[in-house]
Fold this protein.
Amino acid sequence: MADGFNDTPKGAAATTRWVYSFGGGSADGDAKMKNLLGGKGANLAEMSALGLPVPPGLTITTEACVHYYSNAQSYPPDLEGQVDAGLAKVEALAGKKFGDAANPLLVSVRSGARASMPGMMDTVLNLGLNDQTVEGLAKLSGDRRFAFDSYRRFIQMYSNVVLGLEHSLFEEILDDAKDRLDVSVDTALTAADWEKVVAEYKVAVKRELGSDFPQDPRDQLWGAVGAVFASWMNDRAKFYRRMHDIPESWGTAVNVQSMVFGNMGDTSATGVAFTRNPSTGENRLYGEFLINAQGEDVVAGIRTPQALTKATREEMGEKAPSMEEAMPEVFLQFKDVVERLERHYRDMQDIEFTVERGHLYMLQTRNGKRTAKAALKMAVDQVAESLITRDEAVMRVEAASLDQLLHPTIDPGAVRDLIAVGLPASPGAATGKIAFQADEAERLAELGEAVILVREETSPEDIHGMHAARGVVTCRGGMTSHAAVVARGMGRACVSGAGEIQIDEKAGELRARGRVFKTGDIITIDGGKGEVLAGAVEMIEPELSGDFAQLMVWADEVRRLKVRANAETPLDARTARGFGAEGIGLCRTEHMFFEEDRISAVREMILADDEKGRRTALAKILPYQRSDFTELFEIMAGLPVTIRLLDPPLHEFLPHTDAEIEELATSAGLDLEKLKRRRSELSETNPMLGWRGCRLGVAFPEIYEMQVRAIFEAACAVKKKSEAPIVEVMHPLVAKKEEMAFLRKLTDNTAKAVLKEQGVELDYKVGAMIELPRAAIRADQLAETAEFFSFGTNDLTQTTFGISRDDSGKFLDAYLKKNIIEKDPFVSIDQEGVGELIKLGVERARSTRPDVKLGICGEHGGDPASIGFCEAVGLDYVSCSPYRVPIARLAAAQAALEAKAK
Ligand code: PEP
Ligand code: MG
């Protein structure tokens, strides 16, 4: 029995099926079994059952991986027998035998989780080779050179993935061999040369590990299975999971599949294809292939791949023949298969294939990752092609990915100082400082710098740097290189294969077209054109048009939740309206005072030591407020505007330095010593729980009275000129019904006085934010005088967890890394805790006032998962920052469709 088997499993029934076979036109599983078989395994099964040419194999389930981790890293006892039975089927279908010296079956061992995690986990190819089987392979293939080349690749890959030895150990041996033979490329090595390299590799393994390279194919197999399971927990995989919200509890499946070889000469090849362009969405076969190469060579970006179609080759101005030209018959068969796959899955497919001596084999198909732009185009096109419905189109575009399209792009009229041209690997424009290493990119980004990561090529080790960077440039690699695929998935702009650029990492320099740029120099990249430009370049604001606008129309047709924006400046309000906001859900009035001349009036008001002093300062502020509100009402004509009265955590507004306070004394003609004394009186140990929110209005009603006056004077002015504004006055940080009753009265008295003075009639609403657990619990009482509530989930999260929203960054990361929390609760609502309070608040508020209007205006209002929650608990609207409005519209539509499907 192989090492690691456990005779006393916890929780696993003896009859559990751990292994599913596929191949020969049938399969045990199908595409719907992704959770159990992983994406790759489920689709291999589906393709087999469709009768497509898939090399036979078996899938070890994700449940076996879960068992492995919950049973001290040991396999279920009956797994070995099931794998043996599965292997016997593969042998029968392939007509070869695992470990047989004369007719050996070789297999690949690959990971495959439920969600694709490209390049994050481990793979071993050519497994089953040893000193005997390599001879069998040489005879069978009639190509001794190929057999020993495969064996040396296997030793290197296995030693790295399973035995933990560095690649460099093997690369040095190969480099020495090439030096001795005085050749520069691998292809110049003969069979005898590779045989010597293999012998040296084995000596190196023995020297490093004290034992021989494993010769028993069964030991090799179990070593590789264990390594794939182990790779589920490597740092890259963990990082990727955290970034894409993939739960650790899913585990990975393992696919053991009969090898086919794309490196058996010029009638063999390997490649990747997308049924539509993953970057632009254009409906045209797209991809790359390499003649006489093995799978990983294409993705690794080591050789420059060739186009699949003649048309693409001509467009790219390339000389090397396309697949259509180099192997026309196989190409026709391939084209037929991929078209069938897209129709079958009703979505764009990302496909891996190999041609072995003129025979086509499909190695993978999955729904392809795509940019937001491509996702929109494909969804809209596929509705027109009657391939999918409008509702399906709405579900096809990941709401958060729209962020990619909501950022500026390069102004077509801008001057472009071209440094280099590469491939347009992932669209969007980005400006930033050059960083040559992933760690450096991450470090600079943490300091708040915009960074462009420039690498020779990227590998999974660079993923954190790519995430931290605004954009990525590589000197080598095609449109399906690691950099291109990962950048597209992350929504980062990327230019790949910019071969004109030479990097000297040690000197911290890049050279191109005779120019030199150093670490920290600013460059701009245009991922849609594949250009790298010097300096910062003029950008233009995004707008909703074309496919984007069309999808939004479909989304709005099915959406129940309204979407408003958090906005206080005219620019933000206009942007929000342009993106389809249905009102303002939060106008933070304190943000209207950040400008130089205004902040001193506010400081004067806060620091005044009596009502008279405060009123003097308030009189200076009122005209600003009135004109700001007037503009907001005008921009939002016909839509509700929720104005929140002042909520300044005092520490954000007090003068910090002596110079600031001296300036204030001079400008306002106040006594410096008095001001200093007042500042220290007001300084708080815990300002987030201090004299903020409505506590300010309760203590100094004249402040809120001034604001309410400004709101209604503005509203009257607008109504006199045009349409009546829809006014909602909101009180922050309310906790008690008596507090709310006091604020309501204050608001009504002032509003009525102004309306009377102005001779205007106007409906308005008065409400509160729910930002404290007490407010949620007693929303029934607050609703006696409040007509609407908005859940301020920034503060509600802070006050429920007792975690300061300003300081959480320092320690939450440790919680995330240790899996104590899955998501930052300040980003996505903690549904079990904060969410329960929201539910309670909703229920209780409605128990008093059935038509109470309920919304959310914390940052969560723009987070798709939280929007799903808001739909489920029956809020009326979400409010988010202007640039997230389209994301919220789509997320709200998706939540409504999901609710309908339940
Ligand atoms: C909140 O607390 O969620 C909120 C929207 O208010 P602020 O962020 O201004 O405290
Ligand atoms: Mg708040």
